[in-house]
Amino acid sequence: MIAAGSLDRRVQFLRAQNIDDGLQTLKGGFAAYGTPVWAGKTPLSDGERFRADSIMREMSVRFVVRYSAFTAGITGSDRVTCEGVTYAIGGIKEIGRRIGFEMTASEVTP
Fold first, then answer.
1. Nearest-CA neighbor of 101 among 63, 48, 61, 59?
2. How many CB atoms lie within 10 A of CB 89?
3. Model pLDDT for residues 19-70, shown as the tens digit of each residue
4. Mean pLDDT in the chain?
5. Spatial CB neighbours of 74, under 8 Å, sequence gap ≥ 6
6. Which of 1, 2, 26, 46 is the most buried (most CB within 10 A)?
7. CATH classification of the domain holding 67
8. In this predicted structure, what is the pLDDT of residue 27?
9. What is the pTM of this model?
């Protein structure tokens, strides 16, 4: 069970918009996807950062969100914005059976 008090941040998910020019489909910029949801945000420990170095050098935070039909559709190619900072989702892990999701993410430099 995820304690309600631990979900103390509002996050907005972003999804890449495809641009169809008639000849091909290109990836466009990211736009808001769905409505903001409550999430918990935790910085990764130094040990986790060290172990993640070979996979994702910039991995910096972990977000926890409750399970819903909407959050079940979030993928690793989406992004999340929290407190004005945009993060690329590096990995998603389900917590329990339809309890929530844990997402590791790295800050995106503009």
1. 63
2. 20
3. 777 777 777 789 999 999 999 999 987 665 555 554 555 658 999 999 999 9
4. 87
5. 13, 89, 92, 101, 103
6. 2
7. 2.40.10.270
8. 73
9. 0.81
Place of tokens 């008090």: 5
CA–CA separation, 110 and 96 (whole Å): 35
Q: φ, ψ for residue 50 (rounded to 5)?
A: -65, -45
CA dihedral sign of residues 28, 84, 106, 33? negative
Domain containing 22: what range? Answer: 4-107
How many structural domains is the chain composed of?
1
SS3 state at 103: strand
93-108: average pLDDT: 94
What is the predicted pLDDT for the residue at 54? Answer: 47
- Roughly how many angstroms between the first and final C-alpha of the chain, as a whole number? 36
CB of 33 within 8 A of CB of 78? yes
